[in-house]
Design goal:
The chain is mainly α. It is built from 15 helices and two strands. It has a two-stranded antiparallel ribbon with strand order 1-2. The chain starts with 12 loop residues before the first strand and ends in a 24-residue tail after the last helix. Bound molecules: fe (ii) ion (2 copies). One of its GO terms (cellular component) is chloroplast stroma.
Amino acid sequence: MQSSFSLLHSSRLTTLPSHGRNLTHNIKFRQPPISAVAVSPPLRPPPVTHSMPPEKVEVFKSLEGWTTQSILPFLKPVEKCWQPSDFLPDPTNPTDTFFDEVRALRDRTVDLPDEYFVVLVGDMITEDALPTYQTMINTLDGVRDETGASAGPWAVWTRAWTAEENRHGDLLKTYLYLSGRVDMLMIERTVQYLIAAGMDPGTENNPYLGYVYTSFQERATFISHGNTARMAKEGGDPVLARICGTIAADEKRHENAYSKIVEKLLELDPTGAMMAIADMMRKKITMPAHLMYDGKDPKIFEHFSAVAQRTGVYTAQDYADILEFLVGRWNLEKIELGLTSEGREAQDYVCGLAPRIRKLQERADERARQMKKQDQMPIAWCVRGNSGRSHLVT
Ligand SMILES: [Fe+2]
Ligand SMILES: [Fe+2]
């Protein structure tokens, strides 16, 4: 999950990052009411499409052998993968045993605060909109799955990555359902709205941009699930802690794969890759669920982001930390060979960005602190005060 805390999608005057190099950034325009946004794409600047020069498709063609050797091994064989049922009450047990397991689950979640469930639900909804992310990756020129079952290594990676991700939403959703702490109908509606709304991270059918985006996002999800794991442990649910920690480990593995692809692009095409990183950072990395809507709250994404910020699950500081981490991971400050003047300009921008973001975030933090608590919690996903015990039929 995560990011762009400044991105709004309400009926007010809204600032969105531009989606093209030739467009002025931070264009202001008026969006339609949220009821319209929920069923049709919001007003945006004209999208930039297919921004990768056609000859660069060859870069990805030439990397197919490398992808097979160096990226596909990041996938785990199905038989060695964990599955949601490893963490859930076993419905094939005798009825009493199954109910005991469900009761134990509900007892473990009793002391976790409502705010915790708000961020866990937001994370789960983000994971559950997986079809959107596979669609996004399959918009990318040179790496898309041309047939739906293509044998090419880029397509094999994308399908198997999707299959690994598919377990995350499944497991979290079932656990939340059994906990009795959340309103499943509101959650299901939110997921349906979100998948219908889609996402536009500004990747322009360009795999350079696409893999920078996924590198950033996988690290963001790693951080977020790691924090929900820590908080579950502190709140008395070691099983939920293990669930979130296990998902975080998957995200880390995915981050390693995607950032290795960008590392390779920096080696083969330093200027092209450096400019792609700068381009995505200028646009800001938008959270995949930024078009989230529950049918009621036009500011639900802002409210969810505010709770994630306040609980420390995913904060504005994390955004700058991720950027700094990736600058170090890709050794961006040290790259000299093969950089044109445009590439050096992009390098200066990216390498000097984190301190500037931190300054802006300090002001955002202050604003978040000043928000009244009730303004941050009108999220209908939570069943307030439900102990999780009273509704279980025994
Ligand atoms: Fe995930
Ligand atoms: Fe992932």
